[in-house]
Amino acid sequence: MPSLGTVVDPFRLFPRVTVAVLERALASRLAADALDVLLRSALAERAVRIVVEGPLAEAAARAAIRTGLVERVAGELLESGAVETMVDRALATPLPQRVADRLLVAGVAEQMADRVLAGPELDRALERALASPRMAELADSLLNNDGMEALVAQLLDSRLVDSSVARVLASEELWIVVDEIARSPAVTEAIAHQGAGFADQVVDEVGQRSRRADARLERVARKMLRRPPAPAGPP
Amino acid sequence: MSITALRLRKRAPASAAAARDDVVDAAPSQQYVGLVTRAIAFALDAALINAIAILTTAVVTLTFSVVTVPQDVRTAAVAIGGAAYLLWSVGYFVVFWAATGQTPGSRALHIRVRAASGGRLPPRRALVRFVGLTLAALPLFAGFLLILIDDRRRGLHDVLARTVVVEAEDE
Fold first, then answer.
1. Quick one: pLDDT band at residue B59, thresholds 50, 70, 90?
2. How many CB atoms lie within 10 A of CB B73?
3. How many Å apart are CA B10 and CA A25, to the nearest integer?
4. Cα angle vertex A235, ends A230, B2, to 5°?
5. Are B101 and B30 in contact (CB under 8 A)?
6. Higher confidence at residue B29 or residue A23?
């Protein structure tokens, strides 16, 4: 393809002048306006679309992937720390805050929370976590940890527990709950059963002891009166 | 027929009914109850009788304390109260023995009074038993000592009323 200098001065008679003229022309406002008009035109847009949608761009992309160019570039970017720097800069700007605000205002966060709570994924994840042996090991090590024991002891010795218990005992709601429980048919029935069971137990014990005393007293009386032992009663 | 039954048949005619009871009872499948158990059951009954009597007496006494009545009326009230107490005590035992064979005290200790023949005790014999109970207590409770040496653990009142006290079947 011929260069721009060849087009202006095909015989290379005034190369310096040609270069100077070209520099002036390219740096001029007219050239800038012309380029701007060209870039904004439908023609440029069509040209770009043809290039992007054409087989050339696709072949170039495939070649870049096939040759590992994309991976190399990505690797170099990551190794160079450029991505990290970009992320740091992005985080330093008000952009993350704005994104978060936008998400909250739009209710995206609430929708996500609702979806997570309503969906079966959370249940499955919890079930898997609870059923996993790792969880049992974790709980075991946590419960057998001296630090945990000391923490619990410290918590129980703290004023927090005393004040919390005192507040709970002083609350009217607690006594309403206790009253409700005490009046519940299940509790009254259980207490009645327990009372009746205890009385029956006492009576049975007294009965057994009194029958043993019967036999003993009778043996003594018969021995004193020199009478033969009582005939064994039927079972 | 067992030898015991044949021997009992040779008794005097006056004791024919008693002999009949004994014949039926010659081969019982019951365990007779001894003195201590019966004493505890009687104590429970006595406690119940007296608790109700004391409660009733307290109510009547409180009622009399707020009204003014002549001395003669008071004396008559005391006499009536004594008679009521006696009637209540007799009625308690007679009714329970005749109805179910078990007073509340007997029921607590799983024992039962029944005729020696095995049937339920008629009211008349229940009354005789109560009289016999009183008679047995009169000579320093000597009438109850028979229970210790009798083969069927009968006291004087049991002999008089032809009854035995046995273990109650599980109900």
1. very high
2. 12
3. 162
4. 65
5. no
6. A23
Asked if B37 is an interface residue toward chain A (Cβ–Cβ < 8 A), one would say: yes
| Chain A hits for B110, Cβ within 8 Å | 207
The DSSP code for A107 is T
Pick A203's closest partner by Cβ from B31, B108, B145: B108
The tokens describing A159, both together, are 């004023």
CA angle at A172 for the pair A167 and A178, rounded to the nearest 5°: 100
Contact B29 A206 (CB under 8 A): no
How many angstroms separate the Cα of A5 from the Cα of each of A20, A24, A30, A34, A47?
Answer: 10, 13, 19, 19, 25
B14 part of contact set with chain A, CB < 8 Å: no
Chain B, nearest residue to A207 by Cα: B109
Note whether A221 contacts B40, CB cutoff 8 Å.
no
- For B96-115, the pLDDT digits (tens) are 999 999 999 999 999 999 99
Closest residue in A to B166 (Cα) is A233
ipTM score: 0.75
Residues A221, B149: C-beta atoms closer than 8 Å: yes
CB-based contact (8 Å) between B109 and chain A? Answer: yes
Beta carbons of A217 and B34 less than 8 Å apart: yes
Residue A181 in tokens:
């429980």
Which residues are within 8 A (CB) of B122 and not within 5 positions of it... i.e. 6 or more apart?
Answer: B98, B115
Which H or E element spans position A194? Answer: helix A185-224
CA distance A215 to B33: 9
> Taking CB atoms and an 8 Å limit, are A233 and B31 in contact across chains?
yes
- DSSP 8-state class, residue B144: G
Full-model pTM: 0.50
Handedness of CA B91, B95, B97, B101 (dihedral sign): negative
Q: How far is B4 from chain A (nearest CA, A)?
A: 14
pLDDT one-digit tens code per residue, B117-149 = 988 999 999 999 999 999 999 999 999 999 999
- Cα A72 to Cα A63, A65, A85: the distances in Å are 13, 10, 19
pLDDT tens, residue by residue, A207-235: 999 999 999 999 999 999 888 887 765 43
